[in-house]
Amino acid sequence: MSAPHAQLLADLRPAAFAIAYRMLGSVAEAEDVVQEALLRVHRALEEGQRIDSPRAYAATVATRLAIDHLRSARVRRETYVGEWLPEPIVTDPRSDPARQAEMADSLSLAFLVLLESLSPEQRAVLLLRDVFDYGYEEIAAIVGTSQANARQLAARARRHVDERRPRFEASRGQRDELARRFFAAAQEGDVGALEALLAQDVVLHGDGGGKVPALARSLHGRDRVARTLMAWARQGFKLAGATFRQVEVNGQPGALLLDGDGGLISVMALDIADGQIQGVRSIVNPDKLRHVGPVGDMRALLKRGRHST
């Protein structure tokens, strides 16, 4: 591969991944789509095809591959054990803060879950238009439809999403301070301080995928969520020597829960709005954590904890 072609493909990768990940909610699946999309760009260039816009070409291939993948993935997601949550990514708030803030809402786990209720075509059109600012002429060509139909798909998707779109704290400083107090209260076992941070109708989500113990369904309400979180904290911190490492997860405040050996047990993300925590998402399915770091053995930790009591 020539150096200019290699550099072009490297430059195209972030934008292609941004589309594929939001479409699929899976890092591994998005990487597969991006790899195939860039391979097709490379082949076209090597064959001497004229590509007026490599960015649009890569976006077109990535989007179409993601749509095809979603159609085949629906059956798998319908039979998923427990609640399905996207694979989390740890984001860096220091890189281009203005751009990060602009894209954070569309990257949040809450928003990616909401996209699951759309058809693959609706999801593609909404993302390309409202997140990545493509024109309807480009979108129609990418999705393989007319401009009129692309507009209709976007309008229907937008109506559906706007009714349920999550709200997030506008002030990064207040948001991060609430997250710091939340994880400190959990680690210290201070249920009163924890409850004070939760909204009355807070929702707790968990994803174990049938691989490790997790919530069978989401929990609602301050009291139930606080008690469940404290039970998790007591079990983790007393038996496994676990610690929280506060990070940004999908553009929102969150933390990594690490065992005593530094193995990753859970990734947690918080939805914060109106000065309160509105939602907590905990991903413990080890298959969804491997791209973040070395994964701890939760079953072994739980077994060890039972034997020590």
Order of helices and strands: HHHEHHHHHHHEEHEEEEH
Taken as a percent bin, the fraction of beta residues is: 5-15%
Largest sheet: 7 strands, mixed
In whole angstroms, the N-to-C terminal distance is 60 Å
How large is the count of helical segments? 12
Number of strands: 7
Large-scale geometry: globular
Mean pLDDT: 89
**Uncertain runs with pLDDT below 50, 5 residues or more?**
none
> What class, by secondary structure content?
alpha+beta
For the largest sheet, list the strands in their spatial order: 1-4-5-6-7-2-3
**Rg, Cα atoms, Å:** 21 Å
Q: How would you summarize this macromolecular structure in one to three sentences?
A:
This protein has 309 residues and is an alpha+beta fold. Helix content is 57%, strand content 15%. The chain contains 12 helices and 7 strands.
Defining key terms:
7 strands; 309 residues; globular; 7-stranded mixed β-sheet; alpha+beta; 12 helices
What report would you give on this structure?
The protein is of the alpha+beta class and 309 residues long. The protein is 57% helix and 15% strand. It has twelve helices and seven strands. It has helices spanning 3-24, 27-46, 54-78, 97-107, 109-115, 120-131, 136-143, 147-164, 172-188, 191-197, 222-239, 298-307, and strands spanning 90-91, 198-207, 219-220, 243-249, 252-258, 264-273, 276-283. It has a seven-stranded mixed β-sheet with strand order 1-4-5-6-7-2-3. Strand 6 (264-273) and strand 7 (276-283) form a beta hairpin. The longest helix is centred in the N-terminal third of the chain and has 25 residues, at 54-78. The N and C termini lie far apart (60 Å). The mean pLDDT is 89.
